[in-house]
Amino acid sequence: MKKTLIIIISFLVLSQGITAWSRTEHDAIAYIAECNLKPEVKERIESYLGGYSIVYFASWMDDYRRTPEFLFTDGWHMGAVDENFQNTEAVHSPRGDCVLALEEAIKKLKNYQSLDDSTVAVNLKYVIHLTGDMHCPTHVNYADLRSFFNVKYNGVTMMYHSVWDYGVLRHAHTWSYTEYQYQLDRCSAEEKQQIMQGNPRNWFAESAKDCVVIYEWAKADDELGVDYMNKAHLLGENQILKAGYRLAYLLNKLFE
Questions:
Q1: Residues 105-114: what's their mean pLDDT?
Q2: Domain harbouring 205, CATH code
Q3: Could you tell me the pTM of the whole model?
């Protein structure tokens, strides 16, 4: 049964394209953020989202990236770094990347009161999703490393990138997005402030530095066992928590 599930997941990943995290992880990031929004900010944001929570739109960019209207966003979900973990793709790639796209959306929302409601809404959706994407370990493109190689997980061959999108966190828990918030969102005010310091470019460099270890943990054709998953899910949970707090920081700052 477990192998059948993995095969189905692998098929869905290949047929739908590369995503960062699953819906549950994106929802968890948005819900952690929502639980750390100022009440007036939460109300203001939801007025632009048709009364919906930010969680409702956490995976919106993945749903719409292949539609004609939003095909231009398809290259925004990943970013590249140099040997010093500094973002490079925003400069060199005509397709853009998660850092540049997030910075542009933030820049527009700084003047949200001068924008029409639909422009505010779509840029909000960009911020909600891309803050999560940029914290996904396999959504960092390193100069000499690639996540698109095959490994074996429970005897089934699948792409390493896909293991991180769907397998790592599911191995440890089958939490709902609200359970992720309940279990992970336990930092003190001082710890939260420390995590929130900086900006998207700093955060992406930090993620790149912290997450490069996953390419030491696994090589092409490796069999990923319990030891691997026990290390990996802790890293993944930490990235989700950071993304949630940082999303809250951005939204509180933009809409206070």
A1: 98
A2: 1.10.575.10
A3: 0.90
